[in-house]
Design brief:
Layout (H helix, E strand, L loop, with lengths): L9 H6 L11 H8 L3 H12 L2 H7 L12 H11 L12 H8 L3 H17 L16 H5 L2 H38 L2 E6 L2 E6 L8 E5 L7 E13 L1 H4 L5 E3 L6 E2 L4 E13 L5 H9 L4 H15 L7 H39 L9 H22 L3 H19 L2 E3 L2 H6 L5 E4 L11 E7 L2 E3 L10 H13 L6 E3 L9 E3 L2 H12 L4 H7 L7 E3 L7 E7 L5 E8 H4 L3 E5 L5 E3 L2 H17 L3 E10 L11 H4 L3 E10 L6 H10 L3 E5 L4 H11 L9 E4 H8 L8 H7 L3 E5 L3 H13 L9 E5 L5 H6 L2 E5 L5 H6 L2 E3 L4 H43 L6 H19 L23 H28 L16 H20 L17 H20 L11 H23 L40 H24 L11 H5 L2 H4 L26 H5 L37 H4 L16 H6 L3
Parallel strand pairs: 9-21, 9-24, 17-20, 21-23, 22-23, 24-25, 25-26
Antiparallel strand pairs: 1-2, 1-3, 3-7, 4-5, 4-6, 4-7, 8-26, 10-11, 10-20, 12-13, 14-15, 15-16, 16-19, 17-18, 19-20
Helix pairs in contact: 3-4, 6-9, 7-9, 7-14, 9-15, 9-31, 13-14, 13-30, 14-30, 14-31, 15-30, 15-31, 17-18, 17-19, 21-24, 30-31, 30-32, 31-33, 31-34, 32-33, 32-35, 33-34, 33-35
Length: 1192
Amino acid sequence: MTNNSFSGSKYVRRGEANHDAEFSCSVQELRSLMELRGEEAVARIQESYSEVNGLCARLRTSPVDGLDGKSEDIDRRKEVFGLNIIPPKKPKTFLQLVWEALQDVTLIILEVAAIISLGLSFYHPPDAERQTGGVDDESEAEAGWIEGAAILLSVVCVVLVTAFNDWSKEKQFRGLQNRIEQEQKFTVVRGGQVIQIKVSEIVVGDIAQVKYGDLLPADGVLIQGNDLKIDESSLTGESDHVKKNLDKDPMLLSGTHVMEGSGKMVVTAVGVNSQSGIIFTLLGAGDEGDNEDKKDKKKEEHKRKDSKGKKSKFSRIESYLTCQCGLFMSTLTVIILITRFLIDTFCIQGVVWLPECVPIYIQFLVKFFIIGVTVLVVAVPEGLPLAVTISLAYSVKKMMKDNNLVRHLDACETMGNATAICSDKTGTLTMNRMTVVQAYIGERYYKKVPEPDLIPPKILDLLVLGIGVNCAYTTKIMPPERDGGLPRQVGNKTECALLGFTLDLRRDYQAIRNETPEEKLFKVYTFNSVRKSMSTVLKNHDGSYRMFSKGASEILLKKCCKILTASGDVKVFKHRDRDDLVKKVVEPMASEGLRTICLAYRDFPVSDGEPDWDNEAHILTGLTCIAVVGIEDPVRPEVPEAIRKCQRAGITVRMVTGDNINTARAIAIKCGILHPGDDFLCLEGKEFNRRIHNEMGEIEQERLDKIWPKLRVLARSSPTDKHTLVKGIIDSTVFEQRQVVAVTGDGTNDGPALKKADVGFAMGIAGTDVAKEASDIILTDDNFSSIVKAVMWGRNVYDSISKFLQFQLTVNVVAVIVAFTGACITQDSPLKAVQMLWVNLIMDTFASLALATEPPTEALLLRNPYGRKKPLISRTMMKNILGHGVYQLTIIFTLLFAGETLFDIDSGRNAPLHAPPSEHYTIVFNTFVLMQIFNEFNARKIHGERNVFEGVFRNPIFCSIIFGTFVSQFIIVQFGGKPFSCVDLTLEQWLWCIFLGLGSLLWGQLVSSVPTKWLTFLKTAGHATLQEEIPDGSDEGNDVVDHGDLELSKGHILWCRGLSRIQTQIRVVKAFRDSVSPYEGLETPESRSSIHNFMNHPEFRIEDSEPQIPLIDENESEDDPPTKRNSIFIPPPLTGLSSQPPLPFTPNENNNALDRVIPLHKDISRSALVPPNSAGLPPCPGSPLHSLETSL
């Protein structure tokens, strides 16, 4: 790419001040120009403007110095060519959001019930006094409207909260879009100075600098480009990257992504006149929310069907309770009441049917229907959508403070189930502040940055010139923001380290750049994930060329055939010399966790003729090595602890980096991803690809399944490798428990992996626009420890909703049974409709607020992930629901049928139709509510923990609601009167009610003492799929059964497992009969160099041993104390007894310090990061027979 001519541009600048003269290009002309592509566009530019500089002249701008930046000129351009803003579609109004919230099935049933109840409350049939006697209490009848009003109030409450949350979510999302788009800065040249301005401030005629990772904010024509490749799929749908240059295709379009290279363009269209703006206008508006919905839909298509979030589980439970249980119970109640009334009136009493008595019969039917509606209202869990809404909204808001900007709400919950995290190294695990700390220059290895006088002047000049021109001109070292602070690093951090190195050598790189501006660079081969290097070509005055290169040391050194000596002379660099340099310099640097960069150059003399610049393989050979530097990027101090928490929580952390394998391994050890002596794998991208591809060059899932469970570090990896790994782990069916994968990424090429992952984390500081767009959560501080916070919040969301369900279902079950049984036996519900609605509305709404806002604790990280198919209601929760239901029903029925005797009061049973409230039924109601208040403490624990008060004061909302509910109950009982069907109670009666309520806490301790495994009849509820729950005790178990067998009956699975175990034992016996010892040859040199020889025996194709897996799936580990159970994490084995020979290992791929073959009886506890004496771990097998027999 030859240097462009900029002649004739200076006079253009002088003429800019004359604003009376119109621009020589109209908006329509520029729009039609930008619709052209390729050679057609080049021809139009040549025809209309002679060249790009002619277009700049017509737009009154300079290709070198840009616009002059005067406000009147900028305003004039905005007036003529428009603003760089696409007006968003009007957001939905609050009323529209209310209407959408009203479409919920649960709420529709409530609305219908409310309208019917209100209508009936105002219906007074004439002469409707019951002839059998009784008092028609007018005030009681007048209070009938309270039932309908209370139901409506519950609907209004849920609708308003849902609509408000949707409104705030949309507002938050628009705010986020404004932060990412409107406040996004872009680099332009104005008045000869490179400055950053807001995207919305860009005008037609601006000279914009584009670089790798940018999302282009406007249309433009390329002026100068270096190896520029653009992803135009967002506009054209074509996935191939389009190469841009002046000769073939100089058109750059807004909304496209720069995937490689850098360059400059003159802006020709902005806002609604740009190509993406035109499309948005055709669609009706540029609504970011619509785009987001499309992204969500695409994301869902990529995800597996069984990775559904909570909403499917909630809707299943809700529809089950609403449509099945609720409607069935309410209908049955009405039918029984009507039937009993008819039999009692016309058969037993022998009343004759009289037409004039019809109004009386209607009144009874109204009464029965209201009781039926009461049962239905109690059965419908309208608090559930409220609990989900509050929990997610509360979590998202709090996660903002923990540096997690949630873009998709479902990601918040999905993160709680994550089983694997594939993390970048630079910036996430490390501080991303790089400095050169070691160097090899002039055949000398310096353990610290050398003084300039120790380096030969000739080498020093080459070194500084090479670094100055061969680093992106957008990268620079800026003065510190405050005195005594560190200099600010702007741009690529590796290049910042090199520029800082020149400053340490007391040389000024900026002077070199001023002497050689970017326009004078003859050709630039920009850095990308394939090259792993960057090269810049300069043209000398005599016509020769000099190319400077920098890149990964082990890659660039292979392309060097010469090296500079201590005297500054050039000497031949042989293969043996290279090996010595790698062994004595590169490996020691890498082992200390340093990133090693080689700096080299090559001269192209005139006598060799013009090189073929497109033949990269030929150009990037025959280099002369100037120096090798070691760059330190310190591990973030909080990362090792964060990774330890992840491992303890059952989450596998893998490092995926483009760095050298030795550097990656050293950093992984510092972080705690690897431990000396572990038998986990460290692979390079090439080796990883070799192992997973078959002879046809296709990726095989079976091959991938042999690698990923033990893989901890993937070095020298490309973005494609990262995507392959993530997809392979997500699609893998090696274990019963499918993996949920989170991925971090910052680069443009990380987009596919971020989209494929269950949860994608983009870096807020170092991340490109493309990565942020593809992500679910943005880490605003680029810190791995923030991911751990996201895990905690995700698990907390799941647990909070489970706590609420445990509480609400207990209330619902008891209330429905009491209402149904009482109504059928006494022809009247012991709990009146208004009392039920107080219990249902206030208790449910308050409970959702109290239990859904529990703050997360470190204890959440002491258990393994739930996985994709974990039910919302576990067996332990079901045990608690039924256990507390039994206690409450026993107390209520005892009070109902024997309360008048126990308290020596009048019976409230069989009262006339409109009798005044009784003490008897008031005690029943008061005791019922107090039992719910104290049971709310029990609901705080869902895993069988005993201390239900732990951390209660950390949640002021919970304490306030408990106190407020108690006070409200006191007021209702003492002063509620006839509307609430209550009479005031004595102090003694209150104390008895409180005592019976407190009994819930004591009963809870008894329920916790009953092992769940005894209650085999209990089933779970709220699965994502209909598959039987996989118990915690054996999740992650590596079964010999194929994943398809999981669809079979449990008996079939057990049969297959038993058969596999017998086959294993037969193989072992056969092996011992043949006198083959499993330890034979383990320490021989042959076995060290190749494990393949040892593994050739089919009897010993084992790569790990595993604690014995229980065969009975019903055994849950939920009964163990949480701290004891949850602290155990046993990583899954790679395979069981494989029927295929494994691929050979190479010594440097395994992190084992001695590169030894893994002993079959290795100490499980060490690799599992669990103390040897931890409860629940089996003793270390004493014999190889035991070890083999228990390996599945």
